[in-house]
Amino acid sequence: MASLSRRQISEKAMAAADAGSSCLAVGLVLLMLMSSMREASPDVEAPQSIHSRKFGGHRLCDEIYVVGEGETLHTISDKCGDPYIVERNPHINDPDDVYPGLVLQITPSKPKEEEGRRLYQKQGC
Which ranges carry the LysM domain (predicted)? Predict the structure, then answer.
């Protein structure tokens, strides 16, 4: 068995690396296509996460809270009973710059059961 020169070893390694990166690129493209098809499919209903649970159209306060459309820190603070939202979330540089999808750590002072019961009664159920 003849020994391979450095150049031959280097060429084989480069060919193997090229083949591997090509396979990974094709796999990544396929995953992106599959992901976009799933998002665009109207018959597939997205599961509700614990952050977007709703009770009669009102969102419940969890320790991890995702800001919804039209909410401000003031409305979230009033709803959840946590006046220290800015102090617990150092990633908030400007309290007026709150946008939908922003993730907040809050400490709700109202128990979830009590809050759910209040919302249930408010709707006349």
Answer: 65-107
50-122 CATH pick, 1.10.3470, 3.40.470, 3.10.350, 3.30.70: 3.10.350
Residue-wise pLDDT for 4-46, tens only, equals: 788 888 898 899 989 888 888 888 888 888 877 765 545 544 4
User: Can you point out the beta strands (E) in the chain?
Assistant: 54-55, 58-59, 64-66, 103-105
Contact 76, 105 (CB under 8 A): no
Q: Taking CA 125 as the corner, what is the angle to CA 53 and CA 46, rounded to the nearest 5 degrees? A: 25
Counting every residue, how long is the chain?
Answer: 125
Read off the pLDDT band of 57 (50, 70, 90): very low
Domain boundaries, the chain: 1-44, 50-122
Q: Is 65 exposed, middle or buried (0-12, 13-18, 19+ CB in 10 A)?
A: buried
